[in-house]
Amino acid sequence: MSRRAVLGLVLAGGAGLAGVQQTGAFSSVTGDRGFDVQTASDQNALLGIETYTSEGQSGSSVPIFTLSNRFSGQLTVDQVSVISSGSLGVTRDDLSLSKWTLGSGEQSDIEATISCSQSTTDDITLKIAASTDDESIELTRSATVTCQQNSNPCAGGPRRVISQDIEEDIDDPGVVIVISSNVKLSGSVSNVRCVILNQGAEVSGKISANNNVSIGRHTKVQDEVDAGGDVTIEQGSTVESGVTSGGVVSLSKNSKIQGTVDADSSVTVEQGSTVEDGVTSGGTVSLGKNAKIQGTVNAVSSVTLEQGSTVEAGVSSDGSVSLGKNAKIQGVVNAGIDVTIDQGSTVEGGVTSDGSVSLGKNAKIQGAVDTGGNVTTERGATIEGSVTSGGSVSLGENAKIQSAVDANNDVIVEQGATVESSVTSGGRVSLGKNGKIQGIVDADGNVTIGQGSTVENSVTSGGSVLLDRNAKVQSTVYSEQSVTLRQNSTVEGDVTAGGDISVAPSAKIEGEANSNTKSDNESGDCPGNSGSAGNSGNAENSNGCPGNAGN
After folding, report:
1. Pick from 482, 458, 479, 454: which is nearest to 468 by CA?
2. Domain termination site, one of 255, 278, 309
């Protein structure tokens, strides 16, 4: 009886003997077939089982168990079947036994042919049934196996070369199919080990391979590609449908996929290449200069767009998202780490990030920003929605945020920059020269309003408030510490301070000035109408009433 036939037998004997255990000392064994194993054995069991912890390359056969007959008579292995193999791809047909009938004291090795698109470790669990003339045994055992991705799974083995045009559907398990240059296959290729299309070749149907698919320069596949390994598409080539890969997908310069891409590992779209639908990647996604993805991008790791490249929908990444100069994402961005938007680049939706968000010179986000880290914009950059930051927010020269800012730490608005709504800060707020905040400022720390800058509503500070020369607050100021108005600065409402109020001679408070500095006059009634606008050019003296202020 053949091994395949014996594997299909079902044990018909009586109750199983479940008392065979794997105990005893461990030893290390090195085999001569390209793998290392460790064994555990039971010296006393009537059916001895050594369990191997094996390692081998994808496509290789590795030992997982050795059976030992310790009965006094002959032992027959009636059934070996696979209960589970995880990511190792082992089926019943991938098992082999060196012996199915064992005399007393003899051994039989059980090996498994493993396969993987990337390196992995998993358990293989088998059900083993054996019998003697008088007894039967049925048990379940597991072995741990590490499968290393074969660096070149298409090397060696059987190979078929198609050297002239043919009309045929090819189905050759385990065979590498090679289509010669400028040859057309009118049909599909399926269930093969690898497919290699040389320059100018063409396949009119679907390609399905257990390992890699390589598409040479200026070739064409008129249907989908499904590979258990990598898919490589060289310069100027086209796949007229989608691509599914158990490994990486790589498009060389000016190549095209006219459907979706779904890869277990990274996806690379080089200069000028196009994917005409979405991309899903178990690794990174990288777009070269002027490359394009015309659908959504979902990646487990980072997404990188080089200069001038475009994603025509949203991007979601568990890692970082980076846009090079003049790149574009025409949807929302969700990132697990940092988002970097380089000079002149645009995100046409909102940005959500667990890390920081950084905009280069004249970069733009056309939506809200919500980040667990810092938000930084360089000169001329624009955020067209609100900003919520778990860190600090910093606007470069002439940058703009067109809605509210809420930051756990400092908010820095540099020269000529603008926030077109309110600012809430868990730290300090600082406006540079000619900066503008067109709403309320509420800060836990100090507030500094630089020369010529304006806050178009009230200011509340848990620290001190300073208005530099020609600065303006167009409503009230409340400070738990001091308030200082320098030359020609103005507060158009009341000023209330927990400390001193210091007003330069040319500065102005157009409402009342109320200081909580403790003095002999606790009622706050000071000579000469100290809270009136007419005395706003004065500073407080030692008892909390107006006196002479310097610049």
Report:
1. 454
2. 309
Q: Taking CA 384 as the corner, what is the angle to CA 379 and CA 390, rounded to the nearest 5 degrees?
A: 80
Whether 538 is in a domain gets the answer no
How many domains does the chain divide into?
2
Q: How big is the chain, counted in residues?
A: 551
Structure tokens at 285: 């996604």
- Residues in the chain, pLDDT under 70: 1-45, 150-151, 518-551
Burial state string for 78-105 with b = 16 or more CB within 10 A and e = fewer than 16? bbbbbeebbebbbeeebbebeebebeee
Token pair in block for residue 84: 């589970």
* AA letter at 19: G
**The tokens 């600090």 sit on which residue?**
392
Strand partners, 243: 225, 261
User: Phi/psi at 226 (nearest 5 deg)?
Assistant: -130, 115
Q: What is the CATH classification number for the domain harbouring 69?
A: 2.60.40.10
Same domain membership, residue 157 and residue 74: no
Q: Residue 394 burial by CB count (10 A; 0-12/13-18/19+): exposed, middle or buried?
A: buried
| Domain end among 104, 130, 148 | 148
Three-class secondary structure assignment of 421-449: CCEEECCCEEECCCCEECCCEEECCCEEE
Asked whether residue 448 is assigned to any structural domain, the reply reads no
What count of other Cβ atoms lies within 10 Å of the Cβ of residue 451? Answer: 19
Condensed to tens digits (0 to 9), the pLDDT of residues 177-212 reads 999 989 999 999 999 999 999 989 999 999 999 999
Number of C-alpha atoms within 13 angstroms, CB side, residue 297? 38
What the block records as the tokens of 411 is: 């908010």
**Which range marks the domain in which residue 217 is found?**
152-309
pLDDT (0 to 100) of residue 154: 83
Q: How far apart are CA 101 and CA 69, in angstroms?
A: 9
The pLDDT value recorded for residue 236 is 95
* 203, 158: one domain: yes
CA distance 324 to 326: 6
